[in-house]
Design brief:
184 residues, six-stranded mixed sheet, alpha+beta
Length: 184
């Protein structure tokens, strides 16, 4: 007869949860404030991400970075994010594991009906708390774009927007790129 193992002692719940999510089937699974979410972007959502990527990719290459939607860990919390776009140094991308928000140069979230409140409030607050230097929110429902900079424990201290789609938004250094939001 096999006896069941008691997992209640000596297991770090955060570590166990994040281990499970990394071994969950599907490559776009997040943990947001302890809730496991499978992310399935619509074609319109993917189109918006492509439009942003096209405008920044030359500068991303110049900076020796890659843009993608890899895993971001937020240690000490029940959060494991898969942003729509994160720009990270190429040497960090080679490691293959999750990165931290403060290792990214830019994080872009694009809202969907199912994630709008999370993207607008929860993720913005957490990205600031974990030191992501630039966070761009493309809000497809409100048809606006906002850029958040200068992170701190209470949130971002510098906000540019929200601007209606069609407004040119300047991504500051190290990018120095004018982002055309007309096609979003």
């Amino acid at each position: 007869m096999t006896t069941a193992h008691d997992y209640s002692e000596g297991i770090d719940p955060e570590r166990a949860l994040k281990y499970a999510i990394q071994h969950h089937s599907g490559d776009r699974t997040e943990i947001v404030e302890g809730v496991i979410t499978n992310v399935t972007p619509s074609w319109d959502h993917e189109r918006a991400a492509k439009l942003v990527r096209r405008q920044i990719e030359a500068r991303v290459d110049d900076l020796g970075c890659v843009e993608g939607s890899g895993n971001l860990d937020l240690p000490g919390s029940a959060n494991w994010y898969v942003p729509d776009i994160a720009v990270v140094p190429e040497e960090l991308a080679h490691r293959g594991g999750a990165l931290l928000p403060d290792q990214a140069l830019l994080i872009v979230e694009i809202t969907s009906k199912s994630s709008a409140d999370t993207d607008r409030v929860v993720k913005r607050r957490r990205y600031a708390e974990y030191g992501a230097p630039l966070h761009l929110l493309v809000d497809r429902l409100e048809r606006s774009v906002a850029l958040f900079a200068e992170p701190g424990g209470l949130g971002y201290t510098k906000v540019d927007g929200p601007h209606p789609f069609g407004t040119v938004v300047r991504l500051p250094e190290p990018f120095g790129v004018d982002l055309d939001t007309g096609g979003l």
